[in-house]
Every structure is written in structure tokens, then in C-alpha cells.
């Protein structure tokens, strides 16, 4: 049936929210409405709360130009009077590969309009039924030695990438987007600095990475609903490819800025700040988003696809126990910690292998490979404990054979972990190079370079 339009009007503007009269009994949380400002421009908005007979909405754009009396419109279906909300969904198609879009599915790359797929994908889908989704797949070649060996990843696994600002997260993400052995990459830049977007697309990601990717962008200057929905939109696009049985790599930078957007929305509707200023709804929404990644539902006619996801967490002040980092770490299947001090020594990727882990490792690596990583961790841990004494000359060679071995082998392990953005190393070669570094019979510097 043809849709009808219900009309309302703005009765007040307060901070980020607008109060609207006229939709009582028709609207619900999450509904999309269209607001017309005094310049005659139509701006989409989302209903985020109710108070008595008024609804409060937040616009997907600036609030300038809105005042009391501005018109609001919400489509209805004539047959039942129910809501008709095409704005709450996307229509992804395979032709979106190589494109850059915003949270509303609008193109940002100047390449013309996006084609629409036949099926609508809701932005806020529910995760697959836990008892009916596939298990983790085979291990996934990430192309990066330190991740392949110390945090080996399986198809459908979800990892957190924890780092402070300026430690090399974006470069690591670009290496993953270009080198990971997957069918499709979906990249969400949530709250990214606008100046860095073109640098990421052209320098870090490049034409090779973009060709098999869909990039969803909401920069830091966009309203909080745009930044929040960038994460939902990227997840919906990833689910489109997952349901075709494909192996999808989802990279989201960052979950922290997604949570900051949720905090702005929650505080604007009067939620009490609970943990370090975050309202309770933030920590209720996190698992609803993160659990959508992973193995897809079991299908009778074709193999289930997987969404292998890496979510970056921007730890404030390098505090890895702050609330968002702590909550994300408890939901995901492992974490990769990047350390500023390691980056300052010139070793990139600046991954701290002693603080990083993958919960899927015991089930996907061979006993020999697990033994290699255990030995390497033990050597690095011992060397870290003795580093100050060695630098000060307080340790005398020959005092402890284990320390002597750590002094010989730790620099060779560090050399294996160092990798430029142009390098690609397979899973097998990654473990082979680690084995060469741990072979004490080989002279230093004999490691095979890629």
C-alpha cells in the first residue's frame, strides 16, 4: 500500500535533542523521522526518548536552523497504520565493493550513486542464535608475523586491538585490509579525524585494498547518531557478504568512539552517568554490536560464512583497565595490545606479545607451533625481567644459562616481529622464521628475510 505521512512540529531544542509534538501513539524508540529546517532543507532524525506526550529526536546533521514550529514528518502504511521506515536499513549489493559510504548509505567517494540490492538489511539486527551458528573455522592468514604466530586467528574470531593514540593502529589496520586472506573487507572509521581519511584511503589502504573493501566513514565532526550508526552500517554490510558464504574481514576503528557517541546520546536524554561518565546503556549496547560478528548461522543449502572482526580500542592515557577496554576484553575472543614504548624503540607493529593472546590458539595450531610460541614468550619475559640489570652491567655472563640464552635469542625474536607495511608473510613462513630465531645452533643474523 502507498504510505501516508504523519506530521508533527518541533516544540523545543535543547542541546543535541529536539522535542517534537504530534507523534504520540505512533512513534517508538529508533524510528526515523524527517525534519525540515528554516532553510527548507530536509534532515533525517531518530527518535531517542519520550517524555509525556512529546518525543525527543536527534538529527543526523547540525541543529542550526531548527526552532519551535519546524515541521516533522513520519511515513505510515495506510493498511495498518504501522511505521514505514526505509531509513532504518541498508540495501547492500556486491557492487558496493570499492566504495566509500557514510552511515546512511550515501556515497562519499564522488563515484556516483550507489546501486540498491533487493534485500533490506536492518541496521540493528540481532546476532545469530547462539545454538544455531557455526563454529570457528580454520585459521586465517593475517599476513603479519607477530599476529600469525602469537595471536593466531581463526575464521569467525573476534579480536580487540588495544592501543593509545599514535601507536600505529591505522597502519596495522591497513596491513590487515590488504594482506589478510579473506574474500571481502569491511572497514568502519568511527569518529576518525577528517584530515586523515584520504591519507588512510590512498596511502594506507591503497587501490589494492580498496578494491575488495567497503569503507564506512563518520568523522569526528558528525553528530553522535552518525558516528554510532557507522558501526551498525558496517556490520550490516558485513552480514550481507557473510550470508553469501564468504569469509569477511571487519575492521572497526574504533569501538571507543562508538561508545563515546552512545554516551553523548544517553546523557542528552537524561541517563545518569554511571562508570566514569558512561551511562548504563553503553555497556548494554556493546555486546549487541560485537556479538553480531563471528560465524554465521548454519545453512542447509550452503556453507555458513564468517565475519572475522578486529575492533580497535583507543585506551585513554594508555589505561588498559578503563571501562570500555575492560568491557570489550570480556566480550571478544582475544586481545592484541600495542605498546607505545615498543614503538619508541622503532619496532613496528608495536605489539606487546606478552600481554596479547588469542583464545582460539590451542585449537588451531599444531603442538610444535604452540611449543614455539611458549618458548618465545618465556625468553622474551625473562629478557624483560633482566633488561635493567643487563643495561647497568649488573649481570655477568655465565651466571645463569637461561638468561644467557635470553640475551642471545631475544633480539632475534624481536627481528622476526618487526615488519614493514609492504611485507607479507604467510602463516607457514611466520612460524618457520620464529623457529629459525629460536634455533640456538644458528648464528645470529641468519634469519631468512622475506
UniProtKB/TrEMBL annotation:
InterPro entries linked to this entry: AAA+_ATPase (IPR003593), ATPase_a/bsu_AS (IPR020003), ATPase_alpha/beta_chains (IPR050053), ATPase_F1/V1/A1_a/bsu_nucl-bd (IPR000194), ATPase_T3SS_FliI/YscN (IPR005714), FliI_clade3 (IPR022426), P-loop_NTPase (IPR027417), T3SS_ATPase_C (IPR040627)
Enzyme Commission numbers on file: 7.1.2.2
Pfam families xrefs: ATP-synt_ab (PF00006), T3SS_ATPase_C (PF18269)
Domain AAA+ ATPase: 155-343
Stored SUPFAM superfamilies: P-loop containing nucleoside triphosphate hydrolases
CDD domains, per the entry: ATPase_flagellum-secretory_path_III
Catalytic activity: ATP + H2O + cellular proteinSide 1 = ADP + phosphate + cellular proteinSide 2
Subcellular localization, as worded in the UniProt entry: Cytoplasm
Keywords, in A-Z order: ATP synthesis, ATP-binding, Bacterial flagellum biogenesis, Bacterial flagellum protein export, Cell projection, Cilium, Cytoplasm, Flagellum, Hydrogen ion transport, Ion transport, Nucleotide-binding, Protein transport, Translocase, Transport
Primary subcellular site in the record, as a coarse category: cytoplasm
Family of this protein: Belongs to the ATPase alpha/beta chains family.
Function: Probable catalytic subunit of a protein translocase for flagellum-specific export, or a proton translocase involved in local circuits at the flagellum.
Protein's name in the database: Flagellum-specific ATP synthase
Gene: fliI
Amino acid at each position: 500500500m502507498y504510505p501516508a505521512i504523519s506530521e508533527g512540529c518541533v516544540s523545543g531544542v535543547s542541546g543535541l535533542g529536539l522535542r517534537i509534538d504530534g507523534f504520540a501513539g505512533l512513534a517508538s524508540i529508533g524510528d526515523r523521522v524527517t525534519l525540515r529546517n528554516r532553510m527548507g532543507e530536509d534532515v533525517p532524525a531518530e527518535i531517542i526518548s519520550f517524555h509525556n506526550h512529546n518525543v525527543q529526536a536527534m538529527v543526523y546533521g547540525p541543529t542550526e536552523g531548527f526552532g519551535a514550529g519546524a515541521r516533522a514528518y513520519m511515513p505510515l502504511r495506510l493498511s495498518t497504520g504501522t511505521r514505514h521506515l526505509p531509513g532504518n536499513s541498508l540495501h547492500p549489493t556486491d557492487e558496493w565493493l570499492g566504495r566509500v559510504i557514510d552511515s546512511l548509505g550515501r556515497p562519499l567517494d564522488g563515484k556516483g550513486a550507489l546501486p540498491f540490492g533487493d534485500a533490506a538489511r536492518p541496521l540493528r539486527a540481532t546476532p545469530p542464535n547462539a545454538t544455531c551458528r557455526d563454529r570457528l573455522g580454520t585459521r586465517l592468514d593475517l599476513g603479519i608475523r607477530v599476529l600469525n604466530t602469537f595471536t593466531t586467528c581463526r575464521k569467525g574470531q573476534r579480536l580487540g586491538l588495544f592501543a593509545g593514540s599514535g601507536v600505529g593502529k591505522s597502519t596495522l589496520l591497513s596491513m590487515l585490509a590488504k594482506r589478510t586472506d579473506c574474500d571481502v573487507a569491511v572497514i568502519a572509521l568511527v569518529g576518525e579525524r577528517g584530515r586523515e581519511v584520504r591519507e588512510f584511503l590512498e596511502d594506507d589502504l591503497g587501490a589494492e585494498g580498496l578494491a575488495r573493501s567497503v569503507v564506512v566513514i563518520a568523522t569526528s565532526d558528525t553528530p553522535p547518531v552518525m558516528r554510532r550508526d557507522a558501526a551498525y552500517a558496517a556490520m550490516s554490510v558485513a552480514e550481507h557478504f557473510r550470508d553469501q558464504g564468504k569469509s569477511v574481514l571487519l575492521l572497526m576503528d574504533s569501538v571507543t568512539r562508538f561508545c563515546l557517541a552512545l554516551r553523548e546520546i544517553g546523557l542528552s536524554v537524561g541517563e545518569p552517568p554511571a562508570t566514569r561518565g558512561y551511562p548504563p546503556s553503553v555497556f548494554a549496547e556493546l555486546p549487541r554490536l560485537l556479538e553480531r560478528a563471528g560465524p554465521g548461522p548454519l545453512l542447509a543449502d550452503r556453507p555458513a560464512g564468517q565475519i572475522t572482526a578486529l575492533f580497535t580500542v583507543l585506551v585513554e592515557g594508555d589505561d588498559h583497565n578503563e571501562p570500555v577496554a575492560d568491557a570489550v576484553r570480556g566480550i571478544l575472543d582475544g586481545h592484541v595490545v600495542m605498546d607505545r614504548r615498543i614503538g619508541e624503540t622503532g619496532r613496528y607493529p608495536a605489539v606487546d606479545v606478552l600481554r596479547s593472546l588469542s583464545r582460539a590458539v590451542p585449537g588451531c595450531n599444531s603442538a610444535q607451533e604452540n611449543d614455539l610460541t611458549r618458548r618465545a614468550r618465556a625468553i622474551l619475559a625473562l629478557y624483560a625481567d633482566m633488561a635493567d640489570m643487563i643495561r647497568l652491567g649488573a649481570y655477568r655472563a655465565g651466571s645463569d644459562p637461561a638468561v644467557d640464552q635470553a640475551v642471545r635469542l631475544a633480539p632475534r625474536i624481536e627481528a622476526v616481529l618487526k615488519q614493514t607495511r609492504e611485507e607479507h608473510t604467510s602463516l607457514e613462513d611466520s612460524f618457520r622464521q620464529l623457529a629459525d630465531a629460536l634455533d640456538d645452533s644458528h648464528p645470529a643474523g641468519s634469519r631468512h628475510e622475506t
